[in-house]
């Protein structure tokens, strides 16, 4: 525990200004890109749709930068061969999928899309001149249809091609690879969220659902103890989600950014042997290796043991309580004002408080992660988030390197070392 406190204090003392700067920069860029995507979406929905994922990516990049900034202060997770633009780009690529999943589950993606739609609609309506029915392909309305599916497929194919031929492409193509990854992931979670919403709406209209609601209302009126137990259970589930699942999700995101790997290579990572060639097997190996890295990051949640995770969850809960209390205290201090006043001031207050709170959250998560990595029984280690050893030095995602070449080189080195040991042993 004392070492964890020292690590936390070291992070705050060394990196607080940098963490605050990265957070504010990410939020400012996110705000600008939302406005710009909404403006373009008011003229063409497709153009706005191609720009909106960059707003989410701005927040992703800021968090990746924050965690990589504190890495040198982590005694068990720092690496001498880590750092630089190559690790930054590689870690960003690796973190896109889990970050978007968390971003969508927490409702932030939906909030961005609603704001984008409001801005685009405000631009498109005056131009249409005849009302909502004459907007056409403007206005930023995103629905399940041919357009988003087409964008998803094209972006995914482009990403796979850039991965396949990364060694032959110039270094600047990492920008295109990152954008393609962000775009197809954004569209995937957008379509899944829209589909899930339609499923829930369909169920809500079924007669059986109405019957169950009436049955529940009858229980609430006639059997108050059961209703109280149900409400208490619902409240407890909400508390558990906030107290356990959210900190666990942030721990997973940090694990992906830091490049968590297993001490011993799992059997499924040797998928595709030396005889497997071609684009299809290359893509399959890439997906399997991505899943391995994500799974290694997920195991950080429990490989530290219940005591360590419990202490981390408690620290995270105290942080969340302090952030909410601080926000409430500032609002009470300002006092009551007109609606127009809060429309301009409230976002500034929340960003200012978050600029203080987010470095603390990063320090808490990074300290917990480093404590897990420091346990010998965890069986986990870190790598410098995916540096490609090819002579061309193209920046690629940490799990996009074709794996059989790597293991072949390592196996050859081990055989050479064994031969040398045998010679010295005979001598």
From TrEMBL:
Q: Which domain of life is it from?
A: Bacteria
Keywords assigned: Membrane, Transmembrane, Transmembrane helix
> Transmembrane region positions?
21-40, 46-68, 88-109, 141-162, 174-196, 235-260, 294-319, 339-357
Keyword hit for Membrane: yes
Task: Respond yes or no to whether keyword Transmembrane helix is given for this record.
Answer: yes
Q: What is this protein called?
A: Uncharacterized protein
Q: Please name the source species.
A: Microbacterium foliorum
